Amino acid sequence: MNSIIKAACATCRRELDVEGDPLSSDCGGDCWGCVGETEASLGYGPSIEKCNAEIDAGYRSGSKFKLKKDVDNGQE
Ligand SMILES: [Zn+2]
User: Fold this and answer.
1) Tens digits of per-residue pLDDT, 24-46?
2) Domain ranges in the chain?
3) What is the pTM for the complete model shown?
């Protein structure tokens, strides 16, 4: 057997580490497309900024994430 089985995202089954597709980066078994969206949804600033940049660049679909600056106070 000499077939190369490419890794796929455990969440959306996207092929991982595809050249030219920044959302396919391997984030421990899931693609950055899924991981970034999850983190951004949870309000993680750096991921929100990166996801929004990818939306601007046309890699990611959907609406932009909003930074939840108001939520920062009083929460871990
Ligand atoms: Zn995925």
Assistant:
1) 999 999 999 999 999 999 999 99
2) 1-67
3) 0.80
